[in-house]
Specification:
Elements: E1 4-7, E2 10-13, E3 18-24, E4 33-39, E5 46-51, E6 58-60, E7 68-73, E8 78-83, E9 92-99, E10 101-104, E11 110-113, E12 116-117, E13 121-126
């Protein structure tokens, strides 16, 4: 596991949908929790969503719950972020991340340490 390559970004209108993909290199993809972060202009990078290695656990930031869905295909070393009902506030560079160590507690809180980052893909939502 070492290289993460995102794709799928682009310019869309508010209310549209977009699906981001992140392909990972290596043979141990299923051992990594995967996630998406984003960074809007002038703002710090923020967590968006995460998924466990086997896909059984997911987490989302509140602002995207009900609109975004994270999923993964371990046979293809790929993680996805389906984004629906996009808003102008979703405009950002979206980064894929991989974590070898990730733990969800009983309340659903995720503790993890990011080991690898992608270079990002730009999503622009026009209002």
């Amino acid at each position: 596991q070492g290289q993460l390559v995102e794709s799928g970004g682009g310019l869309v209108q508010a209310g549209d949908s977009l699906r981001l993909s992140c392909v990972a290199s290596g043979r141990t993809f299923s051992r990594y929790a995967m996630g998406w972060f984003r960074q809007a202009p002038g703002k710090e990078r923020e967590f968006v969503a995460a998924i466990s290695g086997n896909g059984g656990r997911t987490s989302y930031t509140n602002s995207v719950k009900g609109r975004f869905t994270i999923s993964r295909n371990n046979a293809e070393n790929t993680v996805y972020l389906q984004m629906n009902s996009l808003k102008s506030d979703d405009t950002a560079v979206y980064y894929c991340a991989a974590a070898r160590t990730a733990t969800w507690d009983d309340s659903g809180y995720l503790r993890w340490t990011i080991d690898y980052w992608g270079k990002g893909t730009l999503v622009t939502v026009s209002s």
